[in-house]
């Protein structure tokens, strides 16, 4: 009975209308009556990008990949050559997908391994890189660009095989092809094969917009942006009938941005990497709005986009470009236009801040290359980085002192959470992530690893009675969403310390209050009660040679100490796992501290220098 009650509360949280949308989508496909099952399209042979007049080369960095190798999910290197890839095979294993000739709706999501591995090459990241090289005079890259697109179209006839299964994947291809057109200076051109390619993708996207909307995530923003961009591009290329498509995309995009982004910039997916994906999506839409000389987006859109840029800027470590590995991380990077590594978020922050704030996020540097490629004006003014930022719409408090940044994640779940990370603390100092989130690893692995990476064990927080913070109901759905009882800033500025505290009470009776103070060290106080057996505090440390002695763990440079006002039942250093990149799993040390009666634990992390 309790399980059904948990599920009912989760469905109410998702929203009855969204639940009905998903049920209608699935039932329609099962019965064979969904409009998406009746669409048809064909893509003719020919050049997708035609050689045009000479345009000036660009003095900016280009990705080092897509020549003799590719980097999948930002971490996994594979060899490539001039020949087109096997588009319906897993590029990491070489195994062909068994549903390559089937209509997309007959292909199961997870029955044949992780379908994201199939999708990765078909996101067309390479189209942007080949366009950059072609812009700078590399004729071979121009030929390869056309050859690969043509081979993809031949290997993936509409609407057969795994690469047509997801409308968001279709949207990403549209967005990447549109960026390639911008790079090549062909915004006003659309060769017949390209026009047919874009139309085929739009036809795939349109019938399932209701399902995308029901997800309350970047499916909705990506698909709306793709429709808008497709319409703007076709209009610039002389298709007067595409104006209606542009208007439809604008309407959808403005609606989704108003719903999915909070007034403070927090995004519905509670994920740093998905926030980047959504922000880059808005940036692409804005780029095409300007090129097509269309009216500005709504005031709400502009305000939310600017706030979203501020949100990500506050999360990013300016020294390294890295950010907390918070929430789901599937390896997505929508605008890899520079030589920056996957986990460097500065190019996206710089682009969005320039577009939506009219300021730079950072002084001149390599992150400006994305502005050069996309012909976006820079600014002489750099946005200030405040010491304290609270994003209460999403449940984040970010504190900064000098080169140190600390994040406290507290539960504000207006949308479904994907990770049980309430009261997680992340610490970055001078470009190094010292206290770390576990990441995601994979969406299609054994329950053991799904529970671990998205569960409380993979976060710097307190676990009660060895139970999950929120029970897992399905692969992507947690139940009994936690709610914050109280949160507030701690005003100790005269002492050189900034602070924040928050608390929650679990349905089972557990209570957890966490205070975080940042000065020349990080001091975290946890007050825990209501548990039956024990409470376990975990600190996930940066990999290194750590030793534990007398309640203090050190690597010779940094030290972390934990004390309590009640007896500590055990304190030990154990081996945990983290996933900095999708499909990557490595070990790291974890300090575990256990108490068996209600009490207060005080942790203090001191770093060298």
From TrEMBL:
It comes from the Bacteria. One of its GO terms (cellular component) is periplasmic space. Transmembrane segments: none annotated. It is found in: Periplasm. Keywords: Lyase, Periplasm, Signal. The keyword Transport does not apply. The keyword Kinase does not apply. Residues 386-562 form the Heparinase II/III-like C-terminal domain. Pfam families: Hepar_II_III_C. This is Heparinase. InterPro entries: Chondroitin_lyas (IPR008929), Hepar_II_III_C (IPR012480).
């Amino acid at each position: 009975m309790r399980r059904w009650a948990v599920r009912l509360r989760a469905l109410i949280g998702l929203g009855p209308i969204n639940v009905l949308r998903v049920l209608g989508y699935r039932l329609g496909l099962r019965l064979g009556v969904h409009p998406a099952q009746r669409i048809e399209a064909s893509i003719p042979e020919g050049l997708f990008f035609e050689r045009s007049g000479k345009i000036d080369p660009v003095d900016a960095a280009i990705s080092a990949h897509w020549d003799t190798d590719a980097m999948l999910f930002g971490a996994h290197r594979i060899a490539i050559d001039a020949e087109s890839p096997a588009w319906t095979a897993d590029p990491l294993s070489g195994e062909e997908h068994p549903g390559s000739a089937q209509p997309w709706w007959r292909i199961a999501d997870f029955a044949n391994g992780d379908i994201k591995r199939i999708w990765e090459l078909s996101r067309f990241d390479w189209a942007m890189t080949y366009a950059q090289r072609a812009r700078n005079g590399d004729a071979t890259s121009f030929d390869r660009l056309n050859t690969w697109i043509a081979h993809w179209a031949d290997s993936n006839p509409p609407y057969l095989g795994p690469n047509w299964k997801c409308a968001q994947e279709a949207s990403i291809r549209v967005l990447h092809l549109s960026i390639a057109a911008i790079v090549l200076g062909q915004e006003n051109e659309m060769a017949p094969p390209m026009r047919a390619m874009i139309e085929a993708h739009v036809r795939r996207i349109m019938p399932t917009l209701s399902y995308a909307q029901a997800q309350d995530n970047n499916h909705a923003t990506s698909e709306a942006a793709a429709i808008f961009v497709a319409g703007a591009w076709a209009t610039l290329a002389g298709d007067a009938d595409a104006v209606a498509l542009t208007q439809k995309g604008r309407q959808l995009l403005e609606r989704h941005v108003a719903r999915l982004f909070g007034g403070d910039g927090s995004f519905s997916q509670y994920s740093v990497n998905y926030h980047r994906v959504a922000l880059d999506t808005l940036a692409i839409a804005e780029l095409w709005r300007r090129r097509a000389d269309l009216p500005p987006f709504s005031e709400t859109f502009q305000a939310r986009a600017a706030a979203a840029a501020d949100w990500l800027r506050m999360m990013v470590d300016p020294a390294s470009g890295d950010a907390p590995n918070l929430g789901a991380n599937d390896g997505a990077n929508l605008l890899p236009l520079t030589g920056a590594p996957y986990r460097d978020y500065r190019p996206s922050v710089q682009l969005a801040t320039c577009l939506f704030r009219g300021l730079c996020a950072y002084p001149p540097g390599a992150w400006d290359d994305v502005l050069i490629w996309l012909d976006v004006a820079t600014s002489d003014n750099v946005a200030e980085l405040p010491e304290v930022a609270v994003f209460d719409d999403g449940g984040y408090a970010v504190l900064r002192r000098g080169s140190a940044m600390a994040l406290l994640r507290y539960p504000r779940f207006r949308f479904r959470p994907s990770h049980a990370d309430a009261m997680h603390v992340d610490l970055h100092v001078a470009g190094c992530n010292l206290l770390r989130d576990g990441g995601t690893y994979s969406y299609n692995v054994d329950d053991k690893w799904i529970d671990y990476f998205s569960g409380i064990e993979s976060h710097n927080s307190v676990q009660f009675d060895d139970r999950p913070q929120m029970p897992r109901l399905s692969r992507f759905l947690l139940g009994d969403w936690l709610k914050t009882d109280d949160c507030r800033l701690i005003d100790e500025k005269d002492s050189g310390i900034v602070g924040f505290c928050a608390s929650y009470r679990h349905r089972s009776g557990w209570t957890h209050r966490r205070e975080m103070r940042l000065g020349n060290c990080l001091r975290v106080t946890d007050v825990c009660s209501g548990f039956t057996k024990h409470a376990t505090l975990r600190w996930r440390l940066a990999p290194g040679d750590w030793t534990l002695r007398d309640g203090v763990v050190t690597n010779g440079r940094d030290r972390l100490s934990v004390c309590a006002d009640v007896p500590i039942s055990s304190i030990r250093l154990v081996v945990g796992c983290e996933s900095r990149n999708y499909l990557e799993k490595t070990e790291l040390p974890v300090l575990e501290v256990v108490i068996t009666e209600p009490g207060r634990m005080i942790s203090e992390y001191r770093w060298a220098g």
